[in-house]
Write a structure and sequence with these properties.
31% helix; globular; 419 residues; Rossmann fold; two-stranded antiparallel ribbon
């Protein structure tokens, strides 16, 4: 019963006023129906991945329905060790309608020796971008692909529906298909649908019982919710298979919107007012973070302001999208590793600190809480070593600096332990 009533309260489906009107539209809006979606029959036959692998090519640019054994992880300042990886690109996991440009796709990366070590544990990668830009083939992919090339995992990098804010920007500058715009909880439902599809497609290649998720920034927010909302019908994916995961790594995530991006104090000397921080974030980035958060909530409860002093503030809706709110509600929380830089100028460290505090309170109350590892990365502060990705990307610094020091890759080690 822990999850049933509380979920209704958070989503605004409970009749708190006892007036016979639960007020659903006031909090999350009407959940879009699937009537416009095309039949899933062509997507769920368990042959797509194996058929693509049967059409292996040595070309770095495989055609439709092919995989390549000549792909590279690439290299960058956050992962300077390029390696070869098998790539099966542009696999459609959901068709939203008859317009192919709206298809939701993923790219699957496998170790070069996958045939000898299959079935493989699977990591689902969820990119960042403020829920409204970014893509699954972005600049941070080298260390993600390395889980396949070096550590023996399969990695699925997924696209998901984003808010309507930057449709033109995405089309002009990002190398992926911009799907239909959507607000919460559709991005989360898309990630769950991808996991369900991958389980159906597992065949002899993937181990459906060993699935984890990794995300950064907005992606860290989505995978945090993924690990805490298994079985919540309002957040369910499209298919009937499980979307549960056995471990989650969340980097720089907005973990608690009730403290994000402000701490209750506002700078009224500028227009519009911006939040004051205890950490050294700039007013500009603070305002940008608030803007992104509000667009995630757009169409959830009309137009929601994240300023609790605003008449447009809706506490229930803000809580519903906050992973920290679900810690006490979840009947099946998953082990979680959270990494956040203390000098993050995009997502305030206070958000993850609030999530950590909520997890510790739940651990004191419930005997079945799984392990939670919380890391505050110092990199990004003046004078600290930084491989070049900035304070919001300091978790990447944390990973690469561990490897450079001869220590285990902390993300790979976490998934090796829990998957």
């Amino acid at each position: 019963m822990k999850i049933q009533t509380a979920v209704l309260v958070l989503l605004g489906l409970a009749d708190l006023a006892c007036d016979g009107n639960p007020g659903k539209e006031e909090v999350i809006g009407d959940r879009p129906t699937d009537t416009a979606e095309v039949s899933a029959d062509a997507l769920i036959g368990p042959t797509v991945i194996e058929e693509a692998l049967n059409h292996m090519t040595s070309s770095a640019s495989p055609g439709m329905g092919q995989c390549t054994n000549a792909a590279s992880t690439g290299s960058s300042l956050i992962w300077p060790w390029p390696a070869t990886v098998v790539l099966c690109p542009n696999l459609t996991y959901n068709k939203l309608d008859s317009n192919r440009s709206h298809d939701l796709k993923l790219d699957l990366y496998l170790p070069p020796n996958y045939a000898a070590i299959k079935p493989l544990p699977l990591i689902v990668w969820v990119h960042g971008g403020g829920w409204n830009f970014g893509d699954r083939v972005g600049s941070t992919m080298a260390p993600v692909k390395a889980l396949a090339s070096t550590y023996g995992f399969a990695v699925a990098a997924v696209s998901y529906r984003q808010t309507a804010v930057n449709l033109a920007l995405n089309s002009a500058y990002y190398n992926y298909e911009q799907t239909q715009a959507a607000s919460f909880p559709e991005p989360l439902r898309d990630v769950k649908t991808a996991i369900q599809w991958l389980r159906i497609q597992a065949g002899s290649v993937l181990d459906p019982n060993r699935v984890g998720a990794w995300g950064w920034s907005a992606g860290g927010h989505l995978v945090s919710l993924l690990g805490l909302t298994d079985g919540v019908a309002a957040f369910s994916g499209r298919y009937s298979s499980s979307s549960a995961v056995k471990g989650v790594v969340a980097m720089s995530p907005p973990g608690d919107f009730t403290t994000f991006p402000f701490n209750g104090s506002w700078d009224e000397t500028v227009s519009p007012p911006v939040p004051k921080y205890t950490a050294p974030q700039t007013s500009r980035s603070a305002q940008g973070s608030r803007w992104f958060a509000e667009h995630l909530l757009d169409n959830v409860a009309n137009s929601i302001d994240t300023n609790p002093n605003s008449p447009a503030y809706n506490a229930a809706a803000v809580s519903a999208v906050s992973p920290a709110s679900w810690i006490h509600l979840s009947s099946t929380p998953t082990p979680l590793l959270m990494i956040h830089g203390i000098w993050d100028a995009t997502v305030p460290i206070e958000s993850s600190r609030a999530f950590n505090a909520a997890w510790q309170r739940a651990s004191a109350q419930y005997t079945d809480m799984p392990p939670f590892a919380y890391v505050e990365e110092q990199d990004g502060m003046p004078g600290a070593p930084n491989p070049g990705y900035g304070s919001h990307g300091s978790p990447w610094s944390y990973i690469v600096n561990k490897v450079l020091a001869g220590e285990p890759n902390p993300v790979a080690a976490f998934f090796q332990q829990w998957l």
